[in-house]
C-alpha cells in the first residue's frame, strides 16, 4: 500500500507547544478562544481512536487515503479548468474553493490548534506536507461542503434540465463525495469532529457569499474601467497581507497564496474578455468554450484536453524562473530598504514579509494559470479545435 502510517507525530506536529508558548505570542482573546477549543479537541481523542479502530479494514484504508486526493490543492488546480473547456460554467466553483482554502488557512493560523494526537490514533496520509498543518478547520471538509452545496444548488434550481433519475443519481454522487471527504478525514486520523464541523461551516459560507455577491461582482468586472481588476487584485492581496501569523511553522499559507493568485487571474482574465473583441460562447461565464461532442468528435475532444493541460503544465514549469528573472531587478530596487528582512527569510512562508519575491512570483504563476484557462477558447479557434 503506497500510503504512510504516521504512527507517532507528537514530536513535530504544529500546535503542540506549551500553553505558555502560545500565551506569550497571542492576544488575550485569541488565546482564550484557542484554550476553549483545545479542550474540545482533546476530549475527542478517545472517541476518535475508537472510531478508527472499530471501522478499520484494509479496503477502507485504501479508499479513504486515496480518495483524500480529490480534496487536495493539486487536484483542484489540475481539474478546475476542465469544465470551462467543455462547455460548462465553472467560475462559481473556483470562487468558493479559492475562498474556502484561504479562510480555512487563516483560521488555522489564528487558532493554532493541533491535529488529533498520534498515538493513540494512527495517521494515514499520502501527503506529509498536509500533515504538517494545524488541525482546525479541515480544508478538505470545507472544500467538500462547498462543492456539495454549490452543485446541489445548481441541480435543484435547474431540475427542468434533468430527468428525475439523473437528478437523484447526481445528488447521490455528490453526497458520496461529501461523506467520503468528511468521514475520511476522521478515519485517517487527520482531523477531529470540531475540525470538520468548522470546515463545513466555512465551505457552506463561501457558497452563500458567492451566491449573494455574484450578480454585483460579475457586473463590476465587466465594466470598461481598469479600476475593476485593480480593485479585485488589491482586495485579494490585502487578504494575504493581513493573513494571521502562525505561532508554529505551518505550510497552509502557501496554498492560500496559490488560490488567491488563481482568483486574481480569474478576475483579470474575466475583465480582459469582457472588454476584448473576442467573445466567449456563454457571456454569463466569459471563457466557457462552446462544446458539442457530436460536432467536435472524440479525437478533437481529446486533443482539446491534451492541448489545454500541456499549455498549463508548460506555463507552470517555465513561469517561476521566468517571472523571477523579470521581477527580481524591480523588486530589489523597490524594497532595497527591506533587504535585511528579505535576505534572512523564515522557513515558514507565513512568517516571511508579505512582499517577498517568491510570494509575488507564486501569485504570478497561479494568476497565469487562471488567465490561460479562461482564454483557451481563443487558442482552440486558432488551432481548429473550437466550434464556429
UniProtKB/TrEMBL annotation:
Keyword Transmembrane: yes
One annotated GO biological process: lipid metabolic process
Domain Phosphatidic acid phosphatase type 2/haloperoxidase as annotated: residue spans: 90-211
Membrane-spanning ranges: 70-88, 94-113, 162-180, 192-213, 225-245, 257-274, 359-380
Keywords, ordered alphabetically: Endoplasmic reticulum, Hydrolase, Membrane, Transmembrane, Transmembrane helix
GO molecular function, one term: sphingosine-1-phosphate phosphatase activity
Membrane topology label: Multi-pass membrane protein
Domain of life where this protein originates: Eukaryota
SUPFAM superfamilies reported for this sequence: Acid phosphatase/Vanadium-dependent haloperoxidase
Gene Ontology annotations for the cellular component aspect, listed alphabetically: endoplasmic reticulum membrane
Alphabetized PANTHER family for the sequence: DIHYDROSPHINGOSINE 1-PHOSPHATE PHOSPHATASE LCB3-RELATED (PTHR14969:SF28), SPHINGOSINE-1-PHOSPHATE PHOSPHOHYDROLASE (PTHR14969)
Name this polypeptide is given: Long-chain base-1-phosphate phosphatase with specificity for dihydrosphingosine-1-phosphate
Amino acid at each position: 500500500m503506497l500510503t504512510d502510517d504516521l504512527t507517532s507525530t507528537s514530536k513535530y506536529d504544529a500546535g503542540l507547544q506549551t500553553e505558555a508558548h502560545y500565551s506569550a505570542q497571542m492576544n488575550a482573546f485569541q488565546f482564550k478562544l484557542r484554550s476553549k477549543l483545545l479542550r474540545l479537541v482533546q476530549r475527542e481523542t478517545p472517541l476518535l481512536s475508537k472510531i478508527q479502530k472499530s471501522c478499520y479494514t484494509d479496503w477502507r484504508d485504501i479508499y479513504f487515503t486515496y480518495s483524500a486526493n480529490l480534496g487536495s490543492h493539486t487536484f483542484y488546480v489540475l481539474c478546475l479548468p476542465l469544465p470551462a473547456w467543455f462547455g460548462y460554467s465553472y467560475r462559481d466553483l473556483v470562487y468558493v474553493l479559492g475562498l474556502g482554502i484561504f479562510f480555512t488557512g487563516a483560521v488555522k493560523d489564528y487558532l493554532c490548534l493541533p491535529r488529533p494526537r498520534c498515538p493513540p490514533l494512527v495517521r494515514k496520509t499520502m501527503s506529509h506536507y498536509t500533515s504538517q498543518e494545524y488541525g482546525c478547520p479541515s480544508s478538505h471538509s470545507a472544500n467538500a461542503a462547498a462543492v456539495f452545496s454549490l452543485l446541489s444548488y445548481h441541480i435543484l434550481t435547474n431540475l427542468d434540465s434533468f430527468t428525475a433519475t439523473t437528478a437523484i443519481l447526481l445528488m447521490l454522487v455528490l453526497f458520496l463525495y461529501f461523506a467520503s471527504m468528511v468521514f475520511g478525514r476522521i478515519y485517517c486520523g487527520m482531523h477531529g469532529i470540531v475540525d470538520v464541523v468548522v470546515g463545513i461551516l466555512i465551505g457552506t459560507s463561501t457558497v452563500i457569499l458567492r451566491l449573494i455577491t455574484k450578480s454585483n461582482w460579475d457586473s463590476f468586472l465587466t465594466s470598461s474601467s481598469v479600476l475593476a481588476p485593480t480593485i479585485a487584485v488589491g482586495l485579494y492581496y490585502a487578504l494575504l497581507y493581513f493573513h494571521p501569523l502562525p505561532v508554529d511553522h505551518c505550510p497552509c499559507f502557501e496554498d492560500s497564496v496559490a488560490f488567491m493568485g488563481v482568483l486574481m487571474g480569474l478576475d483579470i482574465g474575466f475583465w480582459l474578455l469582457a472588454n476584448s473583441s473576442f467573445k466567449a460562447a456563454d457571456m454569463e461565464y466569459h471563457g466557457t468554450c462552446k462544446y458539442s461532442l457530436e460536432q467536435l468528435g472524440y479525437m478533437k475532444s481529446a486533443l482539446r484536453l491534451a492541448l489545454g493541460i500541456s499549455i498549463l503544465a508548460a506555463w507552470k514549469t517555465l513561469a517561476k524562473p521566468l517571472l523571477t528573472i523579470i521581477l527580481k531587478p524591480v523588486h530589489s530596487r523597490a524594497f532595497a530598504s527591506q533587504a535585511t528582512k528579505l535576505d534572512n527569510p523564515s522557513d515558514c512562508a507565513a512568517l516571511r514579509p508579505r512582499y517577498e519575491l517568491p510570494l509575488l512570483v507564486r501569485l504570478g504563476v497561479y494568476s497565469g494559470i487562471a488567465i490561460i484557462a479562461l482564454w483557451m477558447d481563443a487558442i482552440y479557434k486558432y488551432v481548429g479545435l473550437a466550434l464556429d
